[in-house]
Design a protein that fits this description.
By secondary structure, the chain is an alpha+beta fold. The protein is built from three helices and eight strands; from the N terminus they run αββααββββββ. Strands 3, 4, 5, 6, 7 and 8 form a six-stranded mixed beta sheet that branches.
Length: 207
Amino acid sequence: TIQCASNQKQLAVAMFVYTQQNDDHYAPTWVWYPPLTPSSPPLTWAGVLWGQGVLGSPLILGCPSFDEVSPIGLMSQVPLNADPDFWLFTRPHIGYNAYNIGSRVREEGINGYLKYNRVQDVLKPTETILYTDTRATDSPGQVLGHYAAYDFNATASGFFLDAVRHRMALNIAWNDGHVTTTPITDPNDPYADITSVFDTENNWDRR
Protein backbone atom coordinates (compact mmCIF):
# COMPACT_ATOMS: atom_id res chain seq x y z
CA THR A 1 0.00 0.00 0.00
CA ILE A 2 2.82 2.41 0.88
CA GLN A 3 4.64 1.74 -2.40
CA CYS A 4 1.44 2.08 -4.43
CA ALA A 5 0.68 5.40 -2.75
CA SER A 6 4.23 6.52 -3.51
CA ASN A 7 3.74 5.54 -7.16
CA GLN A 8 0.57 7.63 -7.33
CA LYS A 9 2.44 10.57 -5.83
CA GLN A 10 5.10 10.27 -8.53
CA LEU A 11 2.40 10.07 -11.20
CA ALA A 12 0.81 13.24 -9.85
CA VAL A 13 4.17 15.01 -10.08
CA ALA A 14 4.60 13.71 -13.64
CA MET A 15 1.20 15.09 -14.59
CA PHE A 16 2.00 18.50 -13.11
CA VAL A 17 5.29 18.60 -15.03
CA TYR A 18 3.32 17.76 -18.16
CA THR A 19 0.88 20.62 -17.52
CA GLN A 20 3.77 23.05 -17.09
CA GLN A 21 5.11 22.00 -20.49
CA ASN A 22 1.71 22.16 -22.20
CA ASP A 23 0.20 25.54 -21.38
CA ASP A 24 -1.44 24.18 -18.19
CA HIS A 25 -3.42 21.52 -20.07
CA TYR A 26 -3.82 18.08 -18.52
CA ALA A 27 -2.79 15.07 -20.57
CA PRO A 28 -5.54 13.59 -22.71
CA THR A 29 -7.23 10.45 -21.43
CA TRP A 30 -6.51 8.84 -24.78
CA VAL A 31 -5.57 9.90 -28.29
CA TRP A 32 -5.14 8.32 -31.69
CA TYR A 33 -1.74 9.28 -32.99
CA PRO A 34 -0.86 8.25 -36.56
CA PRO A 35 -0.74 5.46 -37.57
CA LEU A 36 -3.49 4.84 -35.00
CA THR A 37 -7.08 5.31 -36.05
CA PRO A 38 -10.36 5.36 -34.06
CA SER A 39 -10.76 1.67 -34.95
CA SER A 40 -7.51 0.78 -33.19
CA PRO A 41 -6.67 0.86 -29.47
CA PRO A 42 -5.84 4.37 -28.25
CA LEU A 43 -2.64 5.69 -26.79
CA THR A 44 -3.51 6.47 -23.18
CA TRP A 45 -2.52 9.30 -20.85
CA ALA A 46 0.30 7.13 -19.51
CA GLY A 47 1.70 6.70 -23.00
CA VAL A 48 1.46 10.44 -23.53
CA LEU A 49 3.42 11.11 -20.32
CA TRP A 50 5.97 8.48 -21.34
CA GLY A 51 6.36 9.99 -24.79
CA GLN A 52 6.88 13.45 -23.30
CA GLY A 53 9.65 12.13 -21.08
CA VAL A 54 8.03 13.00 -17.74
CA LEU A 55 6.98 9.54 -16.58
CA GLY A 56 10.31 8.14 -15.47
CA SER A 57 10.05 4.39 -14.96
CA PRO A 58 6.98 2.54 -16.27
CA LEU A 59 7.01 0.56 -13.03
CA ILE A 60 5.37 3.46 -11.18
CA LEU A 61 2.24 2.58 -13.18
CA GLY A 62 2.10 -0.66 -11.22
CA CYS A 63 0.87 -1.71 -7.82
CA PRO A 64 2.97 -4.24 -5.87
CA SER A 65 -0.24 -5.68 -4.41
CA PHE A 66 -1.02 -7.21 -7.78
CA ASP A 67 0.23 -10.77 -8.16
CA GLU A 68 2.70 -9.67 -10.79
CA VAL A 69 4.10 -6.33 -11.86
CA SER A 70 6.02 -6.31 -15.12
CA PRO A 71 6.90 -3.52 -17.54
CA ILE A 72 5.53 -5.58 -20.44
CA GLY A 73 2.13 -6.09 -18.82
CA LEU A 74 1.88 -2.46 -17.81
CA MET A 75 3.03 -1.01 -21.09
CA SER A 76 1.08 -3.29 -23.46
CA GLN A 77 3.57 -3.09 -26.31
CA VAL A 78 2.00 -2.79 -29.74
CA PRO A 79 4.71 -2.46 -32.39
CA LEU A 80 3.56 -0.19 -35.21
CA ASN A 81 5.62 0.58 -38.27
CA ALA A 82 8.32 -1.63 -36.76
CA ASP A 83 8.75 0.88 -33.92
CA PRO A 84 9.85 -1.07 -30.82
CA ASP A 85 9.37 2.00 -28.59
CA PHE A 86 5.68 2.47 -29.31
CA TRP A 87 3.64 1.50 -26.26
CA LEU A 88 -0.06 2.01 -25.65
CA PHE A 89 0.00 1.78 -21.84
CA THR A 90 -3.58 0.51 -21.69
CA ARG A 91 -3.19 -1.58 -18.53
CA PRO A 92 -1.68 0.49 -15.72
CA HIS A 93 -2.91 -0.56 -12.28
CA ILE A 94 -3.72 3.08 -11.56
CA GLY A 95 -6.55 4.83 -13.41
CA TYR A 96 -6.93 8.48 -14.44
CA ASN A 97 -10.08 10.51 -13.76
CA ALA A 98 -10.99 10.05 -17.39
CA TYR A 99 -14.24 11.92 -17.78
CA ASN A 100 -13.47 15.02 -15.75
CA ILE A 101 -9.71 15.64 -15.65
CA GLY A 102 -8.65 14.03 -18.92
CA SER A 103 -8.22 16.26 -21.92
CA ARG A 104 -11.92 16.45 -22.63
CA VAL A 105 -14.82 16.66 -20.20
CA ARG A 106 -18.30 15.26 -20.19
CA GLU A 107 -21.11 17.76 -20.24
CA GLU A 108 -23.95 17.06 -17.83
CA GLY A 109 -26.31 14.54 -19.36
CA ILE A 110 -24.03 13.78 -22.32
CA ASN A 111 -21.74 10.74 -22.40
CA GLY A 112 -19.24 12.34 -24.75
CA TYR A 113 -16.11 14.47 -24.89
CA LEU A 114 -16.31 18.18 -25.46
CA LYS A 115 -13.30 20.33 -24.64
CA TYR A 116 -9.82 20.45 -23.18
CA ASN A 117 -9.16 20.80 -19.46
CA ARG A 118 -6.64 23.10 -17.85
CA VAL A 119 -5.29 23.22 -14.30
CA GLN A 120 -7.19 26.39 -13.45
CA ASP A 121 -10.47 24.68 -14.40
CA VAL A 122 -10.27 22.50 -11.28
CA LEU A 123 -11.89 24.70 -8.67
CA LYS A 124 -11.34 22.38 -5.70
CA PRO A 125 -8.08 20.51 -6.36
CA THR A 126 -7.78 19.15 -2.82
CA GLU A 127 -11.19 17.46 -3.24
CA THR A 128 -10.93 16.27 -6.85
CA ILE A 129 -9.59 12.85 -7.77
CA LEU A 130 -6.69 12.64 -10.21
CA TYR A 131 -5.80 8.92 -9.99
CA THR A 132 -6.97 5.88 -8.06
CA ASP A 133 -6.64 2.07 -8.05
CA THR A 134 -8.30 0.15 -10.87
CA ARG A 135 -8.73 -3.43 -12.04
CA ALA A 136 -10.07 -4.98 -15.23
CA THR A 137 -11.65 -8.40 -15.64
CA ASP A 138 -12.20 -8.37 -19.39
CA SER A 139 -9.24 -10.72 -19.94
CA PRO A 140 -9.69 -13.74 -17.63
CA GLY A 141 -6.55 -15.19 -16.17
CA GLN A 142 -4.51 -12.01 -16.60
CA VAL A 143 -3.42 -9.50 -13.99
CA LEU A 144 -4.68 -6.25 -15.45
CA GLY A 145 -5.45 -2.74 -14.41
CA HIS A 146 -7.32 -0.16 -16.45
CA TYR A 147 -6.13 3.27 -17.57
CA ALA A 148 -9.43 4.99 -16.77
CA ALA A 149 -11.00 5.40 -13.33
CA TYR A 150 -14.66 5.96 -14.03
CA ASP A 151 -16.88 8.34 -12.09
CA PHE A 152 -19.73 5.84 -12.34
CA ASN A 153 -20.00 2.17 -11.50
CA ALA A 154 -18.68 0.23 -14.51
CA THR A 155 -18.48 -3.14 -12.75
CA ALA A 156 -20.82 -4.70 -15.31
CA SER A 157 -18.33 -3.78 -18.04
CA GLY A 158 -15.48 -5.45 -16.20
CA PHE A 159 -13.75 -2.23 -15.11
CA PHE A 160 -13.91 -1.12 -11.51
CA LEU A 161 -12.19 0.68 -8.66
CA ASP A 162 -10.11 -1.89 -6.81
CA ALA A 163 -10.21 -1.51 -3.03
CA VAL A 164 -9.71 -5.21 -2.27
CA ARG A 165 -5.99 -5.25 -2.95
CA HIS A 166 -5.37 -2.65 -0.24
CA ARG A 167 -7.40 -4.35 2.49
CA MET A 168 -10.59 -2.46 1.71
CA ALA A 169 -9.07 0.91 0.93
CA LEU A 170 -8.32 2.96 -2.17
CA ASN A 171 -5.16 4.91 -2.67
CA ILE A 172 -6.22 8.22 -4.20
CA ALA A 173 -4.00 10.93 -5.69
CA TRP A 174 -5.82 14.27 -5.57
CA ASN A 175 -5.39 17.23 -7.89
CA ASP A 176 -3.18 19.15 -5.50
CA GLY A 177 -0.73 16.22 -5.41
CA HIS A 178 -1.49 14.77 -1.99
CA VAL A 179 -2.30 11.06 -1.67
CA THR A 180 -4.68 9.41 0.79
CA THR A 181 -5.57 5.85 1.67
CA THR A 182 -9.36 5.98 1.87
CA PRO A 183 -11.28 3.17 3.62
CA ILE A 184 -14.02 1.56 1.52
CA THR A 185 -17.00 -0.15 3.15
CA ASP A 186 -18.25 -2.13 0.15
CA PRO A 187 -15.82 -2.99 -2.68
CA ASN A 188 -18.79 -3.31 -5.05
CA ASP A 189 -19.89 0.23 -4.28
CA PRO A 190 -16.86 2.42 -3.52
CA TYR A 191 -18.86 5.47 -4.56
CA ALA A 192 -20.65 5.32 -1.24
CA ASP A 193 -17.36 6.39 0.37
CA ILE A 194 -15.93 8.66 -2.34
CA THR A 195 -18.94 10.63 -3.46
CA SER A 196 -19.87 9.97 -7.05
CA VAL A 197 -20.65 12.18 -10.00
CA PHE A 198 -24.33 11.81 -9.22
CA ASP A 199 -23.98 13.57 -5.87
CA THR A 200 -24.36 17.33 -5.51
CA GLU A 201 -20.84 17.57 -4.09
CA ASN A 202 -18.61 14.90 -5.59
CA ASN A 203 -14.93 13.99 -5.82
CA TRP A 204 -14.79 13.63 -9.60
CA ASP A 205 -16.28 16.67 -11.32
CA ARG A 206 -13.85 19.51 -11.98
CA ARG A 207 -16.50 22.23 -11.70
